Amino acid sequence: MKNENLYNYILGVADNSLILGQRLGELCGHGPSLETDIACTNVSLDLFGQVRSYFQYAAEIAGEGKTEDDIAFLRREREYKNVLLVEQPNTDFGYTIVRQFLFDVYHLLFLEEMQKSQDKTLVAIAKKSIKEVSYHARFSTDWVKRLGDGSEESQQRIQKAVNSLWTYTDELFHQTEADKAMVEVGVAVDVTTLKDAYYTKVNSVLEIATIDIPESKWFQKGGKNGVHTEHLGYLLADMQYMQRSYPGMEW
Amino acid sequence: MTIPIIDKQLQLILEQVSDPEIPVLSIMEMGVVRAAQIINDIVEVVITPTYSGCPAMDVIGDDIKKALKDKGYEAKVKLVLSPAWTTDWITEKGRKALLDYGIAPPLEADADKDVLLGDKKLVCCPQCGSKNTKMISQFGSTACKAFFQCEDCLEPFDYFKCLK
After folding, report:
1. Domain A4-212+219-245 is classified in which CATH homologous superfamily?
2. Nearest Cβ partner for B137 among A38, A45, A131
């Protein structure tokens, strides 16, 4: 492959949206209320749309007749490069919305920076996606505030979700070798520079939501290098089923 | 490329292609066609998605090819992301068609924010015209719409969200 680092970089970025989109898609028809159900699946659809743009670009770089579907459906677990945060299961709505919030804040900061990339295709995707992601962030932020500063039960659930998902936040700011190489040439976002702004934003929302910020300094990592939690395998089994059973099938 | 380059004879054909999710609106009024030109006997149509995940784009592409084929043209459809689509590209005629169809057209960006975040009553009910409306859900039947209800005539309706 001509530009393997760029290819791997794009996959790293896109896999976050792909896996989170799949998680949200699981709620189709199962959301806690009609409005939240529709909202979660709308967000899922936006993410899948963004993923298609990334994967079409990656397929072009890969050449040899590779398609966006090959990249989405025909990789093995260790070849997915998403952060551990996005593969965590839905559990309850508090958990789903905190996972979404913790990712949306990052996603928005990330896309703001990606608009400055030297790569024109990535800039175009960023400019398109940021409009959609600002809606996502608005939605998840509202719900974190509403449930956090809500009833005793909802407050407890949000606190519990924050406590258990917090350990996955630091990984958002880790860099792979491909990331570093792409930062060098001005293509990639240097995620390490987003960390302060991220925690400032997250903490300010949690404060309004009357949620305690976890003090733990120990964080999980591995997803970006393909080492995932046990949850991803099940998600992929579901997601890849059609392409594995009926290779090359189309709508 | 904010002003699309459209060949006049193609314009009339493309005006007949409707948005599959909002059939009263043509793709021209929607502002998704960014260029349409005849190059070496082949029509090249450039379209841009309203939302990244808009499932209507594939259908729109096929409909364009079919409409042009019916008039004897061979066509290629290209999808571009940049510049990103904005609700400003919906034409006046398009906004009117939305309203007649029962969808409140997008407000200006600031007003839109006041409505979606600040509970301000600025969206007019497409049925009775009252501004006494409230948002039911930020996300509606499609990615581009939010769900509202009129508190005077009680009709629920879609509001086309401002996208800039």
Report:
1. Ferritin, core subunit, four-helix bundle (1.20.1260.10)
2. A38
